[in-house]
Amino acid sequence: MLTRTAQTILALTALFSIAACSVVGSEAAPEPDYTVVRAEEAFEIRDYGTLVVVKTPMADGTRAAFGRLFDYISGENGGAREIAMTAPVLNADAADGAEIAMTAPVLQGGGDGREMIFILPADLTLATAPLPSDPMVSLGEIEPRRVAVVRYSGSMDDNADAEEARLREWMAENGLAPIGPAEVAGYNPPWTLPAYRRNEVLIPIADE
What we know:
Layout: H1 2-13, E1 34-40, E2 43-48, E3 51-57, H2 62-73, E4 82-83, E5 86-93, E6 99-100, E7 106-109, E8 114-119, E9 138-142, E10 145-152, H3 156-173, E11 183-186, E12 199-205
Parallel strand pairs: 4-6, 5-7
Antiparallel strand pairs: 1-2, 2-10, 3-8, 3-9, 5-8, 7-11, 10-12, 11-12
């Protein structure tokens, strides 16, 4: 459920050590490009392109999964080069030493067979991304998709369920069909003042 999702995301963001972030809403890292198909107050429909990702199972807990992926972007791979990393960090259903930088948001979906996912920079492909050294870490892709989004501030944990309900109501009013579980995204480090936080609930939808 989204409440568990939000708690996990807050734990992850607590691990981010990006000094440039401020308490008044500075986002932790860049995010992947997307196209806004429709915008209405707090709601949007977005199209994302293909995302190259590195992922690991979460069966042994959030911190262990995060640690494996952080080790990958810090050099436990076959590249031995510095690479910037993008966001979101996804926790979703499971369906050679390069240093990689990270982006935002932190994003998690529901489900029991979950994986933690870091999105890699747009200039990397499956062919050019460094191979993980840890057998529990693997590369993959998220296919292009359209999502309905609601943006909100305040507590990601306390407000996520209500915002999901609000997004689903807006989708129903606009004839938008969900094709996947809700995900919650957090764009700011945990020390950001609640009023300045950017949080989102995203739900994959069918193309119109």
